[in-house]
Amino acid sequence: MFGPLGFSLAPYIKSSRTLSGWFKPFAAWYAQAAGYRQFGLKYDDLLVEERDDVQRAIGRLTTREGYDRAYRFKRASQCSVLQKQLPKEEWIKPEEDVRYLRPHVVEVEKENLERQAWDTASVKRN
């Protein structure tokens, strides 16, 4: 429920077939209504970059992923300046909107927890 990206009921909802059936149409509608796909952005592009764990995760992206991320930001800011959305054929499709940054953020969070555990370890002499 509590992860590095905040509170989430997603694991609980995904584990239940009934809840998953109820929430999937709403989730698809909400993602479309949010409007970030119409500007060529993916969900992970919306993560707050000022967090240390997200900064470290961005540093772990491959060269291609980093280039694609920068291109999406430049294209979205150009759309914002022009106050127009991208043409419909250039919108990000739901199957293309994959979580490319989340695995890196989770990995960084695990490393931080492990580092914290080792930093607080105490050594006793016999």
TrEMBL record:
Function text: Component of the ubiquinol-cytochrome c oxidoreductase, a multisubunit transmembrane complex that is part of the mitochondrial electron transport chain which drives oxidative phosphorylation.
Species this protein is from: Hohenbuehelia grisea
Similarity comment: Belongs to the UQCRB/QCR7 family.
Protein name per its UniProtKB record: Cytochrome b-c1 complex subunit 7
InterPro entries per record: QCR7, QCR7_sf
Superkingdom of source: Eukaryota
UniProt key word rRNA-binding: no
Keyword NAD in annotation: no
Subcellular location per the Swiss-Prot or TrEMBL entry: Mitochondrion inner membrane
Primary location recorded for the protein, binned into one broad class: mitochondrion
Keywords, ordered alphabetically: Electron transport, Membrane, Mitochondrion, Mitochondrion inner membrane, Respiratory chain, Transport
Lipid bilayer topology: Peripheral membrane protein
